[in-house]
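Document type: protein sequence-to-structure record

Subject area: structural biology

Format: plain text, a pair of labelled lines:
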Amino acid sequence: MLELVARRLHLPPAAALMIGGIVLALTPGVPAIKIDPEMVMLIFLPPLLMSGAYFTVWYDFKKHFAEIASLALGAVIFTTLTVGSVFHLLLPGLPWAVGFALGAIVSPPDAVAAGAVLERLHLPSRISALLEGESLVNDASGLVLLRVAVAATLTGTFSISEALGSFSWVAIGGVLVGLIVGWSGVWVIRRLRDSELIITATLLLAASSYIGAERLDSSGVLSTVTTGLILGFHQHETFSASTRVRAQAFWKAMVFLLESLVFILVGLSLRGVLDRISGVGQGIGDLIIPVSAVVFTVILARFVWLLGTGALKRVLLFRRFRSGEPSSIKTTTIMSWAGMRGVVTLTGALSLPEQMPGRDIVLIAAFAVIIVTVLVQGTTLGPLATLLKLASPDEEQQLRDNEASAWRRVAEAQYRAIQKRSQKEDGSEMHPRLLDQYRHRAQVAAQYEADRDMHEGIKVDHFRTVLEALQAGRAEILRMHRAGEIHDRVLQDLEHELDLQEIAAENRL
């Protein structure tokens, strides 16, 4: 229902779902929801991170890795320090470490929030790769900083060497666990033949990778992402065609369900946040300035970091680490505005120890950051991208040209394979019609690559005609079934075959 409302109002689903949760939270008679942070992280993060990593564009992730690392590590640390300093300046009665704990909680943009919003935007591939890659790995640095800040608050001591050692182990340990689970998963999946078992194995591998890393006090986030990248990279040779089709359908449904529940859950948590406002010993008016300052600082710090690193890259000419064109002010603006926060920020705030000073204020500020970044930034990101005219027709043209070239090579490889088996021992042709069919495909693919614009209309008309023929076949199958002329199993088998043909034709339009 909320998804339909979002589409009708042209809102990101995340915003509509959160609003729905907030409405439920404010509805009299609805029981308060008590959130267990560890349980929420365990249920939601592994499958969502696995899906994001599994379907990531590996080429873009590798190409832009240096910039992704800059955002996932540098931007998180910079935002943590900036937010912590502003928070302490406005509330000097609280320890510095409390401000830095808040900064660590709100510093990493959330993979769930980013994926839910970016999915429907047509941004240039470089921007999408940076935002999606950053959201997959930045939680690790934020959670490490949070752990250090909480320990400093409760013990009153801080050690740089211990902090660096903790961060190193969290990062390296998480990647190592992910590599072990990922490669083990590939080894197991190659020996499975049942699609349902393979899909279930990918889900279990996500949970195993996350839990295993967390048990070793390393990053479950990095571990799960590493496992997902390995499985996604090897899916093309380890999964059968039917398994890949079913896995994509399964993960899309899983992600839709979990993302919906996450944002409804975030909205429902408003009840607990409002209850805490009365317990902080300050009026709402006294909280407006520090909370608003935190929200503003979170947004501004990201913009400053992106602007500063972009300028530094141009001035120092770090050509070795440059990928694509340098970030323009338009790119910097859209990437800054895309820093939505979500469930990781909420669970991070809820995980703070009860005895930690300023805990309620930190929770209120963290929730305010989530509300503003999802409801304000998330709903205006699409119009902002349109206003800045970030669409890249040249990039789309390159992708289409690349696809045309790929199809030509595929058709030629298929023709050569059939040609090898087309001759009998006596010299006669074994599969003359099949050979003619694939020879024609190779010729058409070569013509399309040579002059794509001229043949585009012919291609579209061809596949629309194919779709009409498939619809006619489907209607005949249903007529025969209703007339009692074919069995239900025959209906299901034939319809499945037509479904696959229809999907293939629609993908070519």
Summary: Residues 398-450 form one domain.
